[in-house]
Structure formats: structure tokens, C-alpha cells
Specification:
three-stranded antiparallel beta sheet; elongated; mainly beta; single chain; 40% strand; 4% helix
């Protein structure tokens, strides 16, 4: 597989951080905050040497990028690296004592912002954001189901 080059990004040196000096007009990445070294594209397909990424989150346009041109983080690694998560529907997806649908619901797990601690398949061990380490406010929430995210995430504090 050798995709055809159709366009590229040109990076420059801004005053305090890198800048993008040239990009195609259709380039709309999932996250762009160069003052925090963030340029994130969502991966769709992976091969040994190439990754198909979404280059326009508005219309779903994709392009193939050489794996060597960036760092590939799979969802479990990515979700553990975010600052906080928030369950989209806490009634349907409450914090539980174990990583399973049948587990008891944590009555004290109502915090909107949760800090990711560990991943087990589709389940995320979280701590209520800002809680004391002496108080047990950890529990499990389902963070994905198939290709759907069940949480929103914040990359930065």
C-alpha cells in the first residue's frame, strides 16, 4: 500500500510554540492546541506502515499517513492520559463497584468529573475528581460500547 500524496502540513516556529504555516483548507483535526503540543487525529484503519486518520471531523474526510510520521495511541492508552472524563448519561451508565453491568452502583460516585486510573476492556476505573485519597471514591464506568464513546473527555486541566 502506497497512498498518493495529496497535501501536507507545514509547521513553523511560532513565538512561544510551534505553528502551522500551511494546511489544506479542509483540515479540521479532532484536537488542535499547539501551545500544548496537541495535534490529534482519530485513527480509523491501521496497517503495518500506514494509518487512515480522520482529517476533517466536520465531514468525515480521511487520509492515509505513514505511521512513522506520528505517534499512534490506541484508545485505552489515550483515555488513561486525559485529565478527566465525564459520563455522558450517568443514569444509564452509573459508577459501579466492579467492571460489569450487574455490579452494584456506587451511591457516592456522582461526581461529574472523574480521573481515569485504569482500563479493563470497555470499563474504566475512575476516582471522583478532587476527592481525597483517604476516602474511597473510586469505581468503574463503561467508557465505550463498540465504536461509541460513553464518556466525554478533557485533555487538559
Amino acid at each position: 500500500m502506497h497512498p498518493v500524496v495529496v497535501d501536507s502540513l507545514v509547521f513553523g516556529h511560532g513565538v512561544a510554540h510551534p505553528s502551522i504555516d500551511a494546511a489544506p483548507p479542509w483540515f479540521v483535526p479532532a484536537h488542535l492546541k499547539l501551545d500544548h503540543d496537541l495535534l490529534l487525529l482519530r485513527a480509523i484503519t491501521m496497517s503495518a506502515s500506514w494509518v487512515e486518520v480522520v482529517v476533517n471531523e466536520g465531514d468525515g474526510r480521511t487520509a492515509w499517513v505513514e505511521r512513522a510520521q506520528g505517534e499512534l495511541r490506541l484508545w485505552p492508552d489515550f483515555i488513561l492520559a486525559v485529565a478527566t472524563v465525564e459520563v455522558i448519561d450517568p443514569v444509564a451508565n452509573p459508577m459501579r463497584t466492579k467492571p460489569m453491568e450487574q455490579a452494584s452502583i456506587r451511591a457516592d460516585g456522582t461526581s461529574a468529573l472523574l480521573t481515569p486510573l485504569a482500563v479493563q476492556g470497555d470499563w474504566l476505573l475512575v476516582r471522583a475528581h478532587g476527592s481525597s485519597h483517604t476516602l474511597d471514591t473510586t469505581g468503574w464506568v463503561r467508557w465505550r460500547k463498540g465504536d461509541s464513546l460513553l464518556v466525554n473527555y478533557k485533555l487538559l486541566c
